[in-house]
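Loading example: each entry is read as two labelled lines plus one structure line.
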Amino acid sequence: MNQPEKNSFMSNTASKRRLALWLFKNIARLAPAEFRKNYSSQMARDFALQIRDMRAAKLFRYTVFALKDLIYTLIAEHKDTLCTYMKGNATMQKYQNSLFTVFGSYIAFITLGLFFNGSLDDSAYVAQKTGPTFLGLRLLWGSASEIVYNLIGALALLALAAALIGGAPAALYAWRHKPEIRRQFLYPIIGFAMVIFAPAVVIHVWHSATGVTVAKYFAAHVVYFVWFAVWAFFSAKGVITAIRSADTPAAKLLFARWPALVVTASMVLMTIAVFIYGIMLQTTAQQFRSFAVANNLTMGSWLLFVLGMAVASGIALLAYFRGNSALSKNFTSAA
Amino acid sequence: MNTNLDQARALLPLTPAVYHVLLALAISEKHGYGVMREVKEISMGAVELGPATLYRSIKQMLEHRLIIESDDRPDPVLDDERRKYYKITELGLAALQLETSRLSRLVERARQMGVTFDEYPELGLGGRTQ
């Protein structure tokens, strides 16, 4: 008479055991993917072994304990996963911002550089930079100022190449994956055409109608400079917005790490070279020895160029090191 | 060894779960279920690790190189070959030693401060020593 009762008790406990295991396995499915993949089957197997010989009362107590333990662990694992993700994301954000700062500083730098070059159009300065050249490689002969001038040119080419190489993967990704932001790349091109032609036409008409005076010539250069600077600013902003909104993958941004170093180092070296070049001009070009900020390069405008370039290089250098240190800190703590 | 001690010192204090798992693995390498049983035994039934806490601790210890997965597999006839066995590393051993030393100094300090166990003889902790 007791036998059927015992069987019923046993099957009852077995079904409770199955239910407990089912609950455990299904709650364990809610674990973060990596934890689930590595440990959920081991956890379920160990739980099954633990409850294998338990009687009903102990089974209930242990199941409640193990499920509570599982839920707390899952919450902690999800929290860890989220923290790791956010930390990684914040690091990439910081790194991305540092790259954009280097790029923005470079745009400001080349704007200054182009106008520095333009201000050397005086015959005395031209004499400093004429002579046979081959792709700017004229370092083995010529005067010291020629060598410095050509060094500036070579560094400018190097920085341009590095900026293009570093930015190309991210820009191409944005172009391919976000057609709606392509105009952010087109505007700078259209803007560039306007920068080249519109002021030239205006200045030509103005000069033809009223004749050229030194003041007008200087004013025209200032207008042209401002115009060019505005274009450079909005172009850089457009490219940055496009790359940022395209959610560019980390690998494409990490690729820019070394080109960004080349750009930054070139900017620093060019600033030093422009400073040295100005000191050399002081001894060879009479018209340089003036503090007036005029159309052609004077000591005053030279100092402004050097100051502007130094500020741009300094900002780029700081941004580069901040981005790099954010990356290395994250990798160290992850290891 | 000094490097291990320095690295281990940076990981202190260990969580109770990690400490117990290291203690269990210091005896011999084990699979998860074996660790759970050993922990219960060495703590005289006072500590029972849930499977989830055990594997979260194992995950953390693997990340910190306190333990590693053992390449040695028991005879499949005797055991499930899908089981993973874990063994303690030199770093894990150093962490275990340092934590034991820290805990024993803490207990000694508590005794010096007059914390007694006289009221709870059932704990069997020996009571006040001085």
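The first helix of chain B runs from residue 2 to 10.
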